[in-house]
Amino acid sequence: MVDRIADPWGERTPYGPGQQWPVRVDRYLADGRSDADVDRWVQSASILHSNGDALDIAVADGRIVGVRGRAVDRINRGRVDPKDLYGWQANHSPDRLTRPLVRDGGRLVETDWDTAMGRIVARSKELLDGPGGWGHFGFYTSGQLFLEEYYTLGVIGKAGLGTPHMDGNTRLCTATAAASMKASFGTDGQPGSYTDVDHCDAIALWGHNVAETQTVLWMRMLDRRRGPNPPAMLAVDPRATPVAREADVHLAVRNGTNVALMNGLLREIIRRGWYDHDYVEAHTLGFDELCRIVDGYPPSRVADICDVPAVDVERAAELLGTSQRLLSTVLQGFYQSNQATAAACAVNNLHLVRGMIGRPGAGIYQMNGQPTAQNNRETGADGDLPGLRNWDNERHVEELARLWNVDVDTIPHWAPPTHAMQIFRYAEQGSIKLLWISATNPAVSLPELHRIRQILTRPELFVVVQDLFLTETAELADVVLPAATWGEKTGTFTSVDRTVHISDKAVDPPGEARPDLDIFLDYARRMDFRDRDGQPLIDWSGPEEVFEAWKECSRGRPCDYTGITYEKLRGGSGIQWPCTDEHPDGTERLYTDGHFHTEPDYCETYGHDLATGAEFTEAEYRAKEPDGRAFLHTVDYQPSPEVPDDEHPLLLTTGRTVYQFHTRTKTGRAPQLNQAAPDVWVELNPADAARFGIVEGDLVGISSARGAIQARARLCGIRPGVVFLPFHYGYFDQDPTDRTPRAANELTITAWDPVSKQPLFKVAAVAVAKLADGRGVPSPAPTVGGSAPPADADVPPTVGGPAAEATSGKE
Amino acid sequence: MHLAHYLGLLHRAQVNLADAFRQVADAHAEEPDIEHLCQQQAKRCDAHAEQLHPFVVRYSEDAPDEPDRLHSQLFTGTRTGGIGLLRDLQDLYLMAAECDITWTVVGQAAYGARDKELLAVVLRCEGETAIQLKWLRTRMKAAAPQALVVAD
């Protein structure tokens, strides 16, 4: 038995370079059940992070009773993240929505589907009537639906209503990954494979606390680190995360200075001759400009800007520069920070100048945060066109028009699809009048929450929320639609390394809750969207039909699914796209021949100026003659839009704990997970805490120019001058009449990266003050992960106890 | 030599553009990208003006009198609302376009004067002005349908 709360990563199974990662099957069955008590196992994959761990759902007496990892799968070889081990219990939570709700007389009251959908359709038809009707619709979706649901929603928006105002919360988590890959390589699509961990001799983690966000990927890295010839490790993170503590070199940079660091590292690598001249010559564009810019960042200047020792910058450059098989992973420390796209492109630059791409061990993971973020990007339910097509390429839009049999001008392509922050701005100004939010909780997850609540409660704005629970967002809606979730519906989704999994329906949804796909299809039927021949625009009735239609949309594009069927996904391992007749088993790595997706007729973007987001035209792009070469985009460091001052002397960064996901909609309802991290805390460096007279457990007020919240103090290894708040904690489980401000996003700034449009969650200026004495009671922060207190602190360890007993073994 | 007048024209155009970027940033602070990027571009214009200044001084020493109607007024203050934003960005666009063509003219003169130092400044700065134009066009293209067709 193992307590996967006390030890989220479980027992090590060490292995050496080039060996296969050993199998370890993790299992949790509730209420003391054993395999003998399970009626059937239903194939699925993890839904509470982006790793794509394959697992089977245990069903007994028509209910989900547990999960176990799939040993056969390439991603996890049987392992399961603790969030997935315990998180499924939320499906059974007694407060699941089981009937639609509509707002009557200021209150949400239960109703039937006909009434709820009738209201949405009546309002939609009213708004659509008249010139510019399309512009009154906004859709804000998720990174947690299935591929089939996104594709259907994308067709409704782009070919049915004809609105560009559709985006996902992927804008908050993964937009920079996509933007950086488009900019460097021509299209979205991860170059690497998770098996690069098996082969690499160095791992660099750029703003990525993988130990808490993708635990199974971290297990793989740790198993290499404990085996023979382990890879060297570099961590860039202002916090002392488990990754930073494990790393050989840890750069605890000042938030918002990533570009200065990257420029400095590239300068060292070039000056010391650690770059691959032949690769640069044959496969890249922009090396001279890169050299010119990075030359201005000697280690001493980097040390000044980033506040790290110059000698550590040199050590990091040596670790990167002398590796033979370098693996990089990038996440929110780069994506949600200042100059996000430029910093993520700089990681791509590092790999391009060193020729570290497209071979075993030499890989890049521009990570996602959510399980199905990749699909949102592929299918165009966010700020992209389906099939990773280029909105500015008339031929690409014509392909979609032919596929959907609509007029090409029905599909909005006069500008890029509207990004989430702009959708909310249009709603604030009143030109968007219907906002449909599915499977996400902006009233906790977007920046500057008082503003978001104001927008969602505007009387002129008709808000539809489709969710499992009455979230903080659903509370403000005009219509609430009860949705089925993972385990209650069938669909597919795709991991960071392009591995496609199927998730089959295991049990019925509760009450009248419906799969999101059924809700979208019902809306399309009721709206009676037609193609140019007067036939129904959308005639699908179930997920497999949508999947088959999507395959045609993906044909010939980087994310080619045409070789995949539901049948093929069942029984064995997941399959990596592109998967075609020529490559029926999928494709492990992209760009193995150094030929990138930058041809003008194929690429997903004609490019941007990284400092402003100014778009280049097709003619300008063609003039660069990229010819399959990758772009080395480099810019100078610019300070964040908000930096500390006398009034707000500290920098706030927000983030995650291993025990919670997003706004706790599910994990907050799984007892083992919630007890491990039950309430918000604020992390302070002991030196800062001493300055403000704060000790462990004290109640602290944290305030910015936007708002103020309260949290108990955890003194730990975060860098001086920076405070950390987990962003998970909202208000759904507080008494509605007595809510204490605790959501980190009350404080964050409304600002975004000029290219990826990803909001800046890592650089708000704040003040802290002690509000009340903790009387020796420690903060509710877990002792596991980035919030771990110093070894000599008198804080009881986070454990799960008997309720968290799981099994783990070779089988 | 009349180059001094065109240097003066460009210098003043950069100073005016910096000022206009700042006014638009303040007037449309509720559009965070506008505020942030206009402030950023104002600093770029400051830097352009600063780099031009020594040449303005040097060439004005032996310049004839300034001709009539050299300077024109392109900006008379900001507006509000969605269409107001569009019009303000359009003003900025026209002002940046004036800078853009003036860089071209000054660059040609720098060739004629065999002034390598001035040419280096032109080559450094004119690309940044071109990016300003490009950014304004990008932002206006995205905003125009909603402001002109959709908004009440």
Automatic annotation (TrEMBL), chain A:
Q: Which CDD domains match?
A: MopB_CT_Fdh-Nap-like, MopB_Nitrate-R-NapA-like
Low complexity bias (residue ranges): 788-797
Q: Provide the residue span(s) of the region labelled Disordered.
A: 775-811
Ranges where the 4Fe-4S Mo/W bis-MGD-type domain occurs: 39-95
Any Pfam family the entry gives: Molybdopterin
Q: Identify the keywords attached in UniProt to this record, alphabetized.
A: 4Fe-4S, Iron, Iron-sulfur, Metal-binding
Q: Cite the PANTHER family for this sequence.
A: NADH-QUINONE OXIDOREDUCTASE SUBUNIT G (PTHR43105:SF10), RESPIRATORY NITRATE REDUCTASE (PTHR43105)
Name of the protein: Nitrate reductase
Q: Which organism is it from?
A: Micromonospora noduli
TrEMBL record, chain B:
Name under which the protein is recorded: Uncharacterized protein
What is the source species?
Micromonospora noduli
